[in-house]
Design brief:
There is one protein chain. With 256 residues, this protein is an alpha/beta fold. The protein has a single domain, classed as P-loop containing nucleotide triphosphate hydrolases (Rossmann fold). The protein is 33% helix and 28% strand. A hairpin with a 2-residue loop joins strand 9 and strand 10. Helix 4 packs antiparallel against helix 5. The longest helix is centred in the C-terminal third of the chain and has 18 residues, at 171-188. The radius of gyration is 18 Å and the shape is globular. Bound molecules: adenosine-5'-triphosphate (ATP). Residues 13, 16, 18, 36, 38-44 line the site of adenosine-5'-triphosphate.
Length: 256
């Protein structure tokens, strides 16, 4: 199982430190939702955990420091889907999602039957099969977002970092995507970290929630412990009430 440990992480841009003193642990197969107001440092934190930003502190997966792993092994250990990806727009959906299989390819670098099967299954589950041959630049925003996520999922890494995965997705596709991530967690023991602005989705899917404010951890715990009207008023200057659906799932509702 891929237990993710983050110890005293600090990161930022040039001399501008954005996050500091962040420590957290996500058990193998766990789901941590990172929430917080605009500019709190959620994307910066995720990029630093992914090793894409210079940082101090430690990131360990399964007890091993991420920085000590060779590139290919690191890609099998951790997958990251950014909020605003740079896309090779001429590629087709299938070819782009197949790039997620790169760390698993044999010495000749050719994809095998298993790679194609993984991609085909993901396209089907994310409602992308009909778009398989389309070039990325012809896709709608939501279709492109699902394609980016399909590539990250195709990597089959032990740890999955998703930055605002539901941005631009309608409610049905957002639920399909989060359900799929949850299934991978159950089937493969994937450890999941997502940033999410939608607090109801964060509460319904995350096992634990980390509230980031001004680059530091303001609270961490179960969704019920962290997503209280008082903490949301303090950290977001928001007026909300916490309701529950008939099956007991929390709904964070704005009040006028
Ligand atoms: N490439 C960059 N260079 C300089 N500063 C940056 C860069 N990217 C982000 N920042 C700054 O770092 C701070 C945190 O940004 P970040 O994107 O991590 O926040 P966030 O919590 O993900 O915000 P949002 O909810 O608005 O997406 C902001 O003040 C932002 O302006």
């Amino acid at each position: 199982m891929s237990r993710l440990e983050v110890r005293d992480l600090a990161a930022g841009y040039r001399r501008h430190r954005v996050v500091s003193g962040v420590s957290t642990t996500v058990d193998g197969g766990g789901w941590l939702g990172i929430i917080g107001p605009n500019g709190a440092g959620k994307s910066t934190l995720l990029k630093a955990i992914a090793g894409l930003l210079p940082h101090t502190g430690e990131v360990r997966v399964g007890g091993r420091a991420l920085t000590s792993l060779p590139r290919r092994e690191r890609a099998r250990t951790l997958a990251y889907a950014p909020q605003i990806p740079q896309l090779p727009m001429g590629l087709t959906v299938t070819d782009y999602v197949l790039l997620g299989r790169t760390p698993h390819l044999g010495p000749l670098g050719r994809e095998g039957r298993r790679d194609l099967a993984v991609v085909e299954e993901l396209l089907a589950r994310l409602d992308l099969t009909d778009l398989a041959g389309r070039a990325l630049h012809t896709l709608s925003g939501g279709e492109r977002q699902r394609t980016v996520l399909a590539r990250a999922l195709a990597q089959r890494a032990g740890v999955l970092l998703l930055d605002e995965p539901t941005t631009g997705l309608d409610i049905g596709h957002a639920q399909t995507l989060l359900d799929l991530v949850d299934e991978l967690r159950a089937e493969l023991g994937t450890t999941v970290v997502t940033t999410l602005h939608d607090l109801t989705l964060a509460a319904q899917y995350s096992e634990r929630v980390l509230l980031l404010d001004d680059g530091a951890v303001a609270a961490e715990g179960t969704p019920g412990e962290v997503l209280t009207p008082a903490s949301l008023a303090e950290r977001y200057a928001a007026r909300v009430t916490v309701l529950h659906t008939p099956d007991g799932s929390p709904v964070i509702a704005p009040t006028r």
